[in-house]
Amino acid sequence: MQNSKILTLAISGYRSIRDLVLPLDQLTVITGANGSGKSSLYRAIRLLADVAQGRAISGLAHEGGLQSTLWAGPEKVSRAMRAGDVPVQGSVRRDTIALKLGFASEDYGYAIDLGLPVSSGASLFNLDPEIKTEVLWVGEYLKRSNELARRSGGGVQLLDESGRRRMVMHDIASYDSMMTHVAEPGDAAELLALRERMRGWRFYDQFRTDKDAPARQPQIGTRTPVLDANGANFAAAVQTIREIGDISGLHTAIDEAFTKSQIEVVARDGLFEVVMRQHGLLRPLRTAELSDGTLRYLLLVTALLSPRPPSLLVLNEPENSLHPNLLAPLARLIAKAAQTSQILVVSHAASLVEALEESTQCLRYDLVKELGETRVDGAEQVPWKWPKR
């Protein structure tokens, strides 16, 4: 299974997102005012990625459990409510309570439905959500005829080589995904390949830059084509780019931001450390001496110039603590990285969004919140069908 672009992202019942289906492009920018739902959208994508790691249930638990993350508004928001003609109020619920996440790529699609648990007596885990349904399908849109794998309750069916659906599990636990417990070579090869693709998605959110941040400490260095989410292998990742990556792009990205400056890696007693040489200084600056903004920019450069680009890279508010002068070179770097990875940028910085639009073709969404619900006005309407329980 080759990496393919995600065409559609779908979220239902998560925090301020009642129901949202968004087309994605090679570079998609999500922006909006504080409180408009950017963080909810970002967390939803991370939660979707957690499914492939077997961490979806624990991820929800760290957010306060399913009850804390479910859409808190009415099941339906009428035109009269939006117009203010009638108060916002609940009604008799017709649909089951659910948190649904899904996406469709150029080749395959996947969706998961998480719901309230069935009480199991005195168990202390009765607040854990249950995975009610999961479906893997071929193509952009879910149809009964194109399902490759379906999980309903405790049973998992796979489409075998003869075109028949075969039950391969009858008792998968309510907290286990078929992604982690059924995916294997053979009839579940597509499920296995999609799981590994999702495990390769990368998220960078709020690099630590305080004095005790991992990136500021000398670290044991080994070849590292991927920067850790916390930046702990910063020096090794930089050296890997210098030896097998785009060293010219590394020099350009730093020179554009800090004129006549460059970084290099020094090794002392097996420990690697990044140092920065700046024009006019007689000695290089150690990582511990760099400003928070400078270090954050260098970490973003290292992430975006990875010699092993991911199929999907998600950046959450990369502009934090950066000087405005660094946003244009960052935008150019993101645009360049989008040539090899699909990138989603969540940002509230208008200057970064404008710089991205100037640097390359991108799809932009402005989130707004109305009656507590995150919406995107003017988004293209695309077909989407959630799997039934």
Describe this structure in words.
The chain has about 400 residues and is of the alpha+beta class. The chain contains eleven helices and 18 strands. The strands form three sheets. The protein has an eight-stranded antiparallel β-sheet with strand order 2-1-4-5-6-7-8-9, with helices on one face. Strand 15, helix 10 and strand 16 (about 340-345) form a beta-alpha-beta unit. The protein is globular, with a radius of gyration of 23 Å.
Structure summary:
The protein contains eleven helices and 18 strands. By secondary structure, it is of the alpha+beta class.
Q: Which terms would index this structure?
A:
alpha+beta; 389 residues; globular; 8-stranded antiparallel sheet; 6-stranded mixed sheet; 18 strands; single chain
Task: Give the neighbour order of strands across the main sheet.
Answer: 2-1-4-5-6-7-8-9
Given the C-alpha coordinates, what overall shape results?
A: globular
Query: From the helix content, strand content and strand pairing, which structural class follows?
Result: alpha+beta
Radius of gyration: 23 Å
Order of helices and strands: EEEHHHHEEEEEEHHEEHHEEEHEHEHEE
Largest β-sheet summary: 8 strands, antiparallel
The separation of the N and C termini measures 28 Å
Per DSSP E runs of 2 or more residues, the count of β-strands stands at: 18
Q: Which parts are unreliable, with pLDDT below 50 for 5 consecutive residues or more?
A: none
How much helical structure, as a percent, in the residues? 25-40%
Mean pLDDT: 91
The helix tally amounts to: 11
User: Which band does the percent of strand residues land in?
Assistant: 25-35%
